[in-house]
Amino acid sequence: MSRGKLAAPVTSAWLAALVFVVVACAPGLVGADTGGLITDDNTAFLGVTYAQPTSDTTYTITVSGMTGVGVPSTVQYTVTVIDPAATGSPPVTTVDVIEFYNATLDHYFISIDGQEIHDLDTGVHPGWARSGLSFEAYAVVTAGANPVCRFYIPPGYSDSHFFSAAPDECTQTHAKFPQLEYEAPNVFYIALPDTVTGVCPAGTRAVYRLWNQRSDPNHRYTTNLTVATQMINAGYLAEGYGPNAVIMCAVSVGLVGDLGASRRL
Questions:
Q1: pTM of the entire structure?
Q2: pLDDT score of 93
Q3: Of 9, 98, 102, 248, which one has the fewest beta carbons inside 10 Å?
């Protein structure tokens, strides 16, 4: 058997059967290194103590003491056991997209980057503080989620950032505004709404993008409809798809802060 995962998942019952066959053919296996194999009822097998694996685990089975013409004295098998408690693909972990506010600039900013968040929290970049709001996205490539590009709008134009999950908007922004610094094509991953209706996929919730319409352009991104409405009343312009101007679709995790999502802006 080659090293690495088998083409099909190996269950604990299958592996116990394999050990039984090997032991039946080669009693010398008893007492050899079985790496902590298990049976379906988590009991010991032939006097060996087993442990239930909590993740995909590779075991080495050594069969020794065999005799006979053409039979090697020792045979070693390497088997990867798929976690019997797992079903389908491993779960995808979401990340918090943290919002910050700078009262002096009257600017908002979002980030998932640990170092960047630490620097903002500790005053490396003075004037920034957490607003208390956030939403969920993915840190890695995930089915159904688009990469989010990030542009830096330098001093003289604003000293701000712009984010988009729409590939065409990222491309157009890069071409139309060469003065912007294209910082990254994938700072996080998030779903897009239907570009006609603005409706988000199941399991996600609307993210609104609000533009301050000032000479120092800045955008605020929020899943909180009440906040979005307040920003519009303060002179911000909603940018997005459909009648509710939805720009992205965050992962729904308890719908914290998503107030009145059925109301129109």
A1: 0.65
A2: 83
A3: 9
